[in-house]
Amino acid sequence: MQGVIYVAKGAGYLDLAQRSAQSLKALNPGLEIDLFTDLAPEPGLFDRIAAIPDGPTAKLASLGASRFERTLYLDCDTLGLAPLGDLFDVLDRFDLAVAHDVRRTSDLIRTGTGETVPYAFPQMNCGVLLYRRSEPMARFLTEWQAAYHAAGLDRDQPSFRDVLWRSDLRFYVLPPEFNLRRVTELDAWEPLDARPTILHSHRLLQHLRGATERLDDLAAILPEERRARQEEWHAIGLRDPAQGDDPVAAFLAAEAAQGGARGQ
Fold first, then answer.
1. Closest Cα partner for 137 from 115, 162, 170?
2. pLDDT in tens, 51-77
3. What value does the mean pLDDT of the chain take?
4. Is the predicted pLDDT of residue 4 greater than 70, yes or no?
5. Was domain 2-178 assigned CATH 3.90.550.10?
6. CA angle, corner 33, sides to 181 and 174, nearest 5?
7. Most buried pick, 24, 36, 202, 247, via CB within 10 A?
8. What backbone phi and psi angles, to 5 degrees, belong to 245?
9. Rounded to two decimals, what is the model's pTM?
């Protein structure tokens, strides 16, 4: 049995989870979707509703409680863009599938919990996790919970990366269309490059973090990210390489501006 789980704590995240689940249901008829929550969701949308188990975080506690043999965990700030297709078939070969995080030269994404790893093994984005029920996966989840607790960090990705680095778990790196964090990638892709499938954008929850405007779909997010891209280049005193500058030199300069290249 395969299905999707969400973990929503609080009214704002429950609202987002419901919108995300609706988008998945519309694109994937018959897909079973469960919710772990501390509130009462909209009736009829989720196949099963469960209380959030005890654990270091609501998410980490809920991952191992999935009733599915093959589980797709999604953060609440996601939307379905296309049918999932044969995504679950990746688990015929692997215990886990996850996509790379973005901002890979930033201090935030380079942070670990004690392991020394190559730059080419960055943090993974844990907002989209595809995994199967297996002994190796159960051990991994247990070790991840312990590492997260020991690290004392708010973010779970540093401990995830370090546990994955020292693990022999069979895992696969998903292409970005299954965890579309930078929607401006759509500006660069040619027609047959990819099939955008899962949007995962913090801009879907920006209204929960104090923004006055709520963004609800890709059409609203794309122009906002185009504007933000230009502002970020301007903020560090560099010209957006999309305007014609040497792109390699621009990215190396951006990294140097935050303290210099590391691990080179």
1. 170
2. 999 999 999 999 999 999 999 999 999
3. 93
4. yes
5. yes
6. 35
7. 36
8. -75, 165
9. 0.93
Tokens linked to 132: 């199967």
Question: What is the reported pLDDT for 111?
Answer: 84
Q: How far apart (Å, rounded) are the C-alpha atoms in residues 217 and 85?
A: 21
As beta bridge partners, residue 171 has 96
CA dihedral for 57, 24, 109, 95, sign (positive or negative): positive
Structure tokens at 234: 């301007």
Report domain extents, the chain: 2-178, 217-264
* DSSP secondary structure letters along 127-166: EEEEEE--HHHHHHHHHHHHHHHHHT-S-SHHHHHHHHHT
> Sorting pLDDT into bands at 50, 70 and 90, what band is 259?
low
Tokens of 37: 């929550």
Per-residue confidence at 239, pLDDT binned at 50, 70, 90? confident
Instruction: Give me the DSSP letters along 96-111.
Output: EEEEEPS-TTSHHHH-
Structure tokens that stand for 18 in this block:
């419901």
